[in-house]
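Weekend entry, working from home. Most of the wet-lab plans are on hold until the incubator is repaired, so I used the time to fold the two sequences that have been sitting in the queue since the last round of cloning. Logging both here for the record. First:
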Amino acid sequence: MNDFQAVVDLAITKAPNHAAQIRHLQFDVEITEKGRFDRFPYVGKQRLQKLEGIKIGQWYGKQTNSHVYLGAMNQMIHHVKSVQGNQIKYPRPTLFFWSDFYQDFVGTQCVSPLNFHARSYYQYTFKQTFQLQGQAVYQFTVTPKMKTDRLFSGILTLSQEGMFVGFDGSVESDAIDYRIHIQNQYKYESWLPRIANFNVRGGVLGITGEYEIEENVQGEIQFWQPRVHEFENSNKINEVLNISERAFDETYVSQLLANLHQGLIRKWKQRPQSALQAVDSVIIEPVQQKQALHSAFFPAPLDSSSIAYFDTLRKSPFRLDQLIFSKSFYFGKKRADFYPFEIYYKSPVFDSNFNTVEGFVSNAALVFRKRWARYHWLETEVLGRRSFGLNRNTGYIKLRYKTENFDISASQGDYVAQYNPDNTISPEMNSLSTLLLKNNQMKIYRKQYWNISMLKRFSSRLFMKASAESAFRSQMDNSTGYHWVNYLNRTFSSNNPTNDESIKEGFDNHQSFITQFTLGFRPFLTQSYLNSTRQSDWGSSPLIQIKYRAGWPEVFGSQVDFQMLEFSYVQNLALSPWVKSGFILNSGTFFGRSPEYFLDYKHFNGGLNLIQTGDMLASHRLVGYYQNFTSGANQRLNVNHYAYSTSGTYLEALSQFQFSNLWLKPILGTKKAYVKELLIANAVYLPKQKLFYQELGYGLDGVIKVLRLEAIANFSNGQFNYIGFRVNINSRIRIGNIPE
């Protein structure tokens, strides 16, 4: 073929067909993977060594030997024959994944050189042609047409028919560098896998490291005829629904390595263009045959003590200094991943703060748990709260029963509550702003209450939350003007906020009975299967929620009377490999009677403090709880944190777009992939206040790797107010909405 560029065009055009024709194969494969940390913050370094057995510079890895039965490129049965750890005490098997460029996007949302629009992204320069296994193959140098991440650079090898033969090169994604070597073999008139190696290097938040995985197909690849129902979904489907809880329970190293692995293979495994659901069935031999470790792949250990055990349930003898920190004490015979009995001690050292109502406060608690499985337990929590300023002791007792998909609790006590219980202000951040900036954002009241709450996850697509609470609610006032810095000679604001709709400061003590019901639904969720476990791609569907909240008069002596209905739409998605977006739409109204007490108004989620560590999408930047750096006279004022709280109809829209390159970054010559540009647009419409409030902003995310800088302009009914500047902690838009 004289026109070498025609080979590239043929490969691009035929990519889906070439992927579809690879079916019904079986082969042996050896998968080796390893990872190490080159640099780690000092405090984290000590924790790694003490709790997880991790040493900086030491390689930790494992080797998996399996026989793979392939129905399609994303449908496999893995017969695991052996799993061995290299400096890891409890290794888990690594599953084979088929690496190629037949999809439009591969790996961590990178543009494949065989993408249908690949010629818009890449330049292909013919390098050479030669014979490989008796077949003519063609090599091309692939060069990106633009300077950005998520585009491959390297040598692409194609067959005369346009099939993928191999690749040697690299790609950068989110400041992580991937070096890739793939070499296929010719068999059955197709090019099938022989060896694939991925070397990953990078860092985040002062942590740097390296990860490598290599797949070697061993022996002959043979045909295999699956049974008719081999890859049909099991009649008994399980789902892992407590995603956030499991991620929190992971040790740091195992979680980080798992994220690297999953990020690498996610798109290769799913193959949305194949129209086939991804299915992985895993069979582990009960008596494994030991295979020789790939000695050339695993370097010698630093010393004999560098063994990673990833054990979060280690017992240690009791010492008095353990009471300084929160700690779990385990009892009974250890099962696979849990002890049947646990006493969890919550230390007051890290649950102490300051507010202008109670002064300095401290919380301490004991939690008694009986477990039947890792995420199936019954617990009793007893918490005490000491207000040193008021010389008052309060607290509560709570009984809770939970499984992976069901959670019910009942509590009773005398405690404080914030005006917005759905998205509370951090007491620790409020302490800092109060003591250093004389800005007491957190507003609280006292409640003597009982509460019943329930969460039921029916599936990944559907969940329900419900609660009922009876409380005697009492007004609380500022009791101290204590501060560390007399910032701008400010005066502390009242603990009883007002606005144009509610001009009366404070409220009469009263009894309330309030119920709330929330239904959440993800209608378009994409799913795959691992054995009989269904796994979800959380970014594939919006989250739609309907919330009904009501105060019931005369029930348990209640004096509140209102009804509220709210509709919410949440969608985080990638518009392209270089543009991510997030949207939140909230619309609601009160019907029947509007709430009499300001506590029961709809309160909006304001931007967090001068330093923000939470979800940066779920808030207005300059409205709400926290004071920001602002221009002009407004800098000297305390923002009315509840200025837009309403007892009427409301419409709220929050949006954010994250770009790899937009305006300022190219002008400044900042090429670092971890620096992203942000566009922010927020709005709220309140007919009862005749207000249309808007925010437009620009930001840089990832400055000095850990900071996010924002400049936000706000407008009221089209009139410019002021510009606010914010310094926040780097926080990427997470693609996907984790279930409740």
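Second, folded right after the first finished:
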Amino acid sequence: MPSAVLIFASALFLAAAAPLSAPDLEKGWKIYVAACQVCHGEKGDGQTFVANVLNPPPRNFTSPASKKELTLERMLRSVTRGRPGTAMMPWKENLTAGEIRAAVAFIRREFMELRE
């Protein structure tokens, strides 16, 4: 079991290190719309109907605090494993490591305005 975790973590790290192409960003956008937008909103600001019923509310990716607190590694881990105490579910059973990377990269570039 520990070796499986190590292999998965290594795959995430290697995927995170590769530069993004336009198709990767488009893939990330499609995944965001299908899996993330319902909670995090069309603009990534967490302003959705769902936000009114979740405690804590979904993360606002456009806030200065998010830009400061959310490292690439933390975001990959949060999407992969979920966030205890929140409605953020783990996506590792529904998305591949590459799909998770694409969605996170889209969020970081488009909503957090980070150029990595």
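Plan for Monday: verify the second prediction. The CA atoms of residues 21 and 102 lie 10 Å apart.
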